[in-house]
Design a protein that fits this description.
By secondary structure, the protein is mainly alpha-helical. Helix content is 74%, strand content 1%. The protein has a single domain, classed as Growth Hormone, Chain: A. Helix 15 runs antiparallel to helix 17. Belongs to the major facilitator superfamily. Monocarboxylate porter (TC 2.A.1.13) family.
Length: 488
């Protein structure tokens, strides 16, 4: 049984602070003394309880703005991609080359996570954030002077990806440290920043390219990203010391846990679908006869759907269960791709699809922090997320190239890519489904421990009753976890 589950029931009913995985063990010594004096009792440590608000809301706003000026800016790559393909901006470059640039920025952002985690551990969150700002601005400025495709790989791909990674990895764990009962809601507001930013920059990037040109569009993005991220870095505060956060770059022991492997599977398949949808939708709109401006609007509305939908996903996650909501929304993302996107040939239907699917397409980003805390505990969460980001490098790098290779020369050009996207989301939902089965079994197993505690306290009558109930519960197979309803 995981430490998290023991602590879930170690507090009064209705208090979710036990989910944090932060309960301290041992005692603290009197300040200034190496140990307690004779006859003096040691003072037991009290569990760290997140304030569930206060300055945490400032941190939520800061993380939301950082997401808007990292992932939000990166979401506009669909606009850059459509421009590159339409005007052959870099002679000799193929569609596959352009696809790898977009995938490289995300994969580098995730691949740099161990280094970013070490930087946070050694030098603190703010230093790591400033390193990210430096790389991001350098990448955008470098792309503005790019004349060959390999320049674009180094700037918009590599350098921008490094910057986005340092900013993301350093800030992603901050919000869950400030909240317990409202954790999913607060985290979803922070991640909604990437959707709102993606909407704004999808529209503004296309307008800037048309009015001031490609090069100056990059430079304006660099100036805006630098200014906003610097202000947020100065304001943000973490609680790493308060919760005793473990900042390991690569904790291999986590691979021995089946639940963690299911978490990785959920993220892996989600990204294969998400990246294709994010980068291909604007160009798909052009392929069915719409204009580049209309394609940019479709991409912006997909991001708007994420910005609007993620807070609702987070709110209902706290109410209905974080794993429950993650799996359900992931399934609906796949379903919408299969039953709506494939048949969306007009501007109006694509607008409907973009907004509707946007609410659930990025569920992974909105819920990975809270779901990860449910699976491994809040203390180990930074180490677990570091591994998650590394595992996601592969799907983020190759998702869009796979989609472009799946295109056909005639007919429904994107049909195979659309089917691929829908099935990847459904595969991710299956992993989440089995993850909730594990969680249900963990909760049932906890009843056995409660029975043991009752017996050890000489409460024999209550203990026997609990033991009989727990024995029946412990014999349940995975099937019950798959089909029974429980808030997990």
């Amino acid at each position: 049984m995981s430490q998290t589950e023991v602590e879930n029931h170690a507090v009064e009913a209705g208090d979710d602070s036990g989910r944090d995985g932060n309960l301290s063990v041992g005692s603290e010594k009197t300040i200034g003394e190496s140990g307690p004096e004779e006859g003096q009792q040691e003072v037991p440590k009290t569990p760290d309880v997140p304030p569930d608000g206060g300055y945490g809301w400032v941190c939520v706003a800061c993380v939301a703005l950082i997401n808007a000026h990292t992932w939000g800016v990166n979401s506009s790559y669909g606009i850059f991609l459509a421009h590159y393909l339409q005007y052959n901006t870099f002679p000799g470059a193929t569609a596959l080359d352009y696809a790898f640039v977009g995938g490289l920025s995300i994969s580098m952002a995730l691949g740099v996570s161990p280094l970013a985690t070490i930087c946070v551990r050694e030098y603190g969150t703010q230093v790591a954030l400033f390193v990210g700002i430096l790389f991001e601005v350098a990448g955008l400025l470098g792309a503005s002077w790019a004349t060959e495709i390999w320049h674009l790989f180094l700037s918009q791909g590599l350098a921008f990806g490094f910057g986005m990674g340092f900013l993301f990895v350093s800030s992603v764990g901050v919000v869950p440290q400030w909240f317990s009962k409202k954790r999913s809601f607060a985290n979803s507001i922070a991640t909604a920043g990437s959707g709102i930013g993606g909407m704004m920059y999808s529209l503004s990037t296309n307008a800037m390219i048309q009015s001031i040109g490609l090069n100056w569009a990059f430079r304006v993005l660099a100036i805006l990203a630098c200014a906003v991220n610097v202000v947020c870095t100065l304001l943000i505060r973490d609680r790493n010391k308060a919760i005793g956060s473990v900042q390991l770059a690569f904790d291999v022991s986590l691979f021995k846990r089946v639940e963690f492997l299911l978490l990785l599977g959920w993220g892996f398949f989600s990204m294969l679908g998400y990246i294709v949808l994010l980068f291909s939708l604007p160009n798909y709109a052009v392929s069915v006869g719409l204009t580049a401006q209309q394609g940019s609007v479709i991409g912006a509305l997909l991001n708007l759907g994420q910005g609007i939908g993620r807070p609702f996903v987070g709110y209902f996650s706290d109410a209905a269960g974080r794993i429950n909501m993650a799996g359900t929304c992931t399934f609906f993302a796949g379903l919408f791709c299969l039953v709506i996107w494939i048949f969306a040939k007009s501007y109006g239907v694509l607008i409907f699809f973009a907004i509707l699917t946007g609410t659930v397409s990025g569920t992974f980003w909105a819920t990975i922090g809270p779901v990860g805390a449910e699976v491994v505990g809040l203390q180990v969460l930074p180490s677990a997320l570091s591994i998650v980001w590394i595992v996601l490098v592969f799907p983020c790098t190759f998702a869009e190239p796979i989609a472009l290779e799946l295109r056909t020369a005639s007919g429904d050009i994107y049909l195979h890519a659309q089917i691929f996207t829908g099935m990847m989301y459904i595969g991710a939902a299956v992993c989440a489904w089995f993850l909730r089965a594990w969680k249900v079994r963990e909760l049932e197993g906890l009843k056995v421990r409660e029975a043991d505690v009752a017996v050890s306290n000489d409460d024999a009558a209550r203990g026997d009753g609990l033991r009989r109930h727990a024995s029946r519960a412990s014999t349940l197979k995975v099937a019950k976890g798959l089909w029974s309803w429980q808030r997990v």
